[in-house]
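A favour, since you know our structure tokens better than I do. Could you add the entry underneath, on a fresh line?
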Amino acid sequence: MIKGEKIRFDIHNILYSIYRFNKTLNSISIKKIINNHNKEDISFLHHVTLNSMRFHLHSSKIISKYIRKKIRDREKILLISAITQIVFLDFKDYAVINCSVEIAKKLNIYHGLVNAVLKKISKNKKELKRVNIKFDDLPKWFKNKTNSLTDNEKKIFLKNFNKEPSLHIVFKSEEKLKEFEEDLIETSETSGFLKNKKDIKRIESFKKGNWWVQDFSSFFPIFSLQIKKGSMKFLDACAAPGGKAFQILSNNNQIILNDKSKKRLKILEENLDRLNFGPKVLNQDFLKFSNKKKYDFIIIDAPCSSIGTIRKNPEIFFKNKGPSFKNLEIIQEDLLKKASVLLNNKGYILYMTCSFLKVETIDQINKFLKKNSDFELFNFKINKKFIEYSKFIKEGLVITIPDKISEYHIDGYFAACLKKIK
């Protein structure tokens, strides 16, 4: 077996499982494959796998320039991964081509075709690197759900959706940010983008629990509400991995954390332990909470299509099936309804999704307000010091598509704050 062949073969099998069977990188079967490799190989595997999915639309366009007939899924995925490595990651052509040919032989794919096509592509890679994706090239399910986007928003999405995410971190306090030992592009008095890519676990202040990783878009809503220390009873209904709750805890407020998933709860508890936070943690189905106990502020980070996190989760476009919107919409409505029952008078619901699709965001809020006349929108506020962020607030709602701040990438996100007025 030639060097690099085994890991590329595993990458192929992972990509095939995601594409054909709608698996994720966190699936047990895929994790088993990944864990068979050492740390250096795992880094390579993630790099190639994620970027193969990020650039699969570009690679598919390139394939169509050289192959006119319809090809099988295995051939398509093998070529997508190889083209990504040659054209977009600038790997050594001969190593990628040789490994791809050997993998084709093992899969009983026409290896002569793979060899010939990849050699032609390697000769033209500078030109092919400029291949552009149009909005019409995106998955049909996505286009059907984005009729409300403006032409400019579509351009911004196309420009950003396949770029690697930036690392945004949030500190417990202004003092902890000032003590930070790495270069930071500040986004507030307690947050910023890590300027240089680095393994965060090796940073001393991370080990000390001075900060956590949280995308700017996820951080922004609670930051904009400017919640101070008080006596409100907070509940985070779908808390893991914990970023929003950590913001509340950093202001010395008490909050109960809940998550239905034991797997996600384990991550939450690890984060709490590192950060030295000790709130009450529950592992329950929020929809089955007793109606007797009431809260003043309920955070709902609702299950959604996660399209706003497309850069972190490029499998969203790579899978051959789109999200189950019908089921997601029912869950979102049920969570809002339950929160309204558990809320004290003059209390707040913060509804959030890592989606910017109208059906999961504005439509859900409008439906809720239509059914609940005792609620109104509570507006987010921007400190004059951060007036540039006002573009993320539209008609009292936080809504972003995958975009940039100071050349650093942020996720697509949505948030609405609902106040009970009776």
About this structure: Residues 150 and 176 are 40 Å apart (CA to CA). The first strand starts at residue 168 and ends at 171. The two ends are 71 Å apart (CA to CA). The mean pLDDT is 95.
